Amino acid sequence: MAAKTKVARLESELERARGEANWSKAFELATQLSNRSPGFETLTKFLMGEKQLEEYSAVSKTDDQSIAKAKEDLSEVENHLKEAIKGFHLRPELKKEAQLLLAKAYFVMAEYKKTLDCLGDLGLDTLSVQNVSTRMLKIIAEAFAIKGMCLEKLPPPTATTPLKQQEHNERIVGYYEKAGDLAIVHLQEMDKGLTQAVPSSSGSYSGSWSSTSQNGIGTILETALQKSPILYISQGKLNRGIGAFRELLTAVESRSTQSMRMTLARQLAEVLLRGVCDKTYMPPENVTGRKKLGENTLEPRRYVGSSRFRPQQRDEECLLLLIIAESLASKAAVLERSPEVQETKEHSFHNACAVYDLLTIVLVKKMQYLQLSQSLERALKFSFDEFHVWYQFALSLICAEKYPRALLVLEECAKIDPKNPLVPLMSARLCLDYMHTVDEGIEHAKQAANMGVQSYAARGHVALGIGYALKGNEVKLQTTRQELQRKALAAFNKAHLIDKNDHLALFHMALQEAILRQIPEALKHVQQALQLQTDHLHSLHLLALLLSAQKRDEEALDMINAALQEYPEDFSLLFTKSKLEEVCGSVEKALSTCKRLMLLWRDMFESTTESEQRGTGLLDRLTTDRRSLAQIQLSELSDRDSGRGSVHESMAASRVEQALSEVASSMNSSLMPKIGLHQSWTLQAQIWVHLGELYLGMDRVAEANACVTEAASILPMSHQVAYMKGKVYVHKKQYKEAKMCFESAISISPTHIKSLIGLGKLLAGQRHYTMAEKMLKDAVSIDPTSHQAWQELGKVLEAVGQFETASECLMTAVNLESASPVVPFSVIPRTFH
Q1: Which domains, and CATH codes, for the chain?
Q2: Per-residue 3-state assignment (H helix, E strand, C coil) for 602-644
């Protein structure tokens, strides 16, 4: 009795070892059984064949050389399994397992006809899967997968009709689906630790043995799980394919299915992104999954319940799938750096990278850059030296306006790939366009220019020229400024020599020549730039300003109107159009353009600011934001008539205005603070200021005053608003109040040219010539191209008796005025696009 108990215990341990794929232990237990009873010798041969087959198939490949080697290596396995089939006549369950394993051996040897004959003799289609061990469940699942693969690899029957071909294809998919269902049930049972699958009345399974197997299901079943939805899609049955993916993903998860779930989630997200549009998308509850073929299968346990989240939009489902895949990819990442796991590490990285690329597509479409940067940051732990992930992380940080950190990440990118010219070029753009650290941007631009790659070297010199030009705007010393301007022009010229087809080099060269008042040369180069890129916005705008500098105002207005046909929502073009219409004598048309500006602002920004006041979610605000269509540049939101246009100084003034406005609104309840994006409100205030100037030019002081009051309610401490208040007071002959307004504007923005000229002119009118001279000399020093500043300085010097110097100043003013555009050239931003 004790001996029988010992044998039963060994048999139980043997089945457990087989279920765990612990072949060495299984073979050892079989040897012990064979020693105790000669009747177990066949079992030993069976286990020897099973062990050799499973270990070989786990590492085997499918190329011709491997197949030839498999036929040689698996001949012994074939003999062992054939002997086991003959010897298991008294144990039918083990005989079935041996025959199924023999079919698998034939499949590994690419003997597909023999495989199908072997499975046909066994009657696989009618083989019962109820109450079988987990090991047998996996073997049967593999058999269904193998049968489907064999039918797919062998040529279909000759002279087949389209209907029969369709039935043949559905039969193949059906085998894959059965294999997938059984494989998931097997994994769920292994996760629960059962040796036998005993369904209860509720369809669930119960047991007491805890499995420790982490071996997964193998490549055959992994392939089968992914095959059925892919075959549906390849046959044109997109909805059935999507339904098959969804059914697989709703199965209750086990520890061994995480890698498979990640792959399926990524594949379904890719199918939805590539093959389904928003209008044809059907939510999960409305899509019919696969067609069931027969009852010879077990249904996996699935997640059920009314509390489950069901996406209603395509992007919602894609995002959900990719977040799940990203979480699983992060968990499955290999962090070791030893050579032994290098291949596994590369495999896990490429799987994760595919997920992150798709996640980038979805989140960028929704403008969720911060969420994307957080996801990519999690990927860095297993992407230490992977340039692609680090560079994507840097770009996401730039889009999320995390500029200092983005620059640090770009520095890491440069260490990973020091020969990539994109990195220093992007760093230069980041420094010059966003962070306004000009010296650092110049250094990065030099690196890009010296890389040696022709197209990137040209753009490197463009960036270098932009850096020199911006630095020239910030320096006070005239000789230093002129030297930097010459360097900028030389850099743009070098960029053009390197790449004569780069319109951007020609545009910046023309802009720099225009600022230096070399109008004919600038006109020539901007026309060349437009020949290369006919729809370049800033070149079109520059051409219009150059025509106005030649006093061809009607032609300039025609050019602006033509540009507005291409860019009807560009604020800067509309501002210039209004100014040209005023110069051409069509003041009513200029007022109409201002009305168009206000309506455009309302269409673009009112919904955004209202949603912020209501506390609407970030996704709703961002997906309806049309600010990119307006192509607003920071310099365009600063004073358009400052002449010099230093981005650094305009940003500083903007920040001072914002801070002072907030303080003023908190101290005075009558000044209603405007909640929302500061730049959008600054733009609206600028429209009111421009409208006030038009009314003031028409001597309609009351309307001008109303416009200034409206602007002041938006930005109560803006230097532009303070300047306009001063102009209104001058028209009212209230000089004391006007002087206070001009002084307030200068205290907020010391480089505001118009306020300096206005104060200087006012002081001269009050015979305070010394102070007036100082103000106007400051204005000339800040912007030597301002003919108004030179003219007023000449008048002051004439009043104090310095006639020779006054004459020179007035002649300079005349020369500058003859080449001055309707608005300063500085309204055109120095951009990289």
Answers
A1: 1-193+217-230 (1.25.40), 750-832 (1.25.40.10)
A2: HHHHHHHHHHHHHCCCHHHHHHCCCHHHHCCCHHHHCCCCCCC
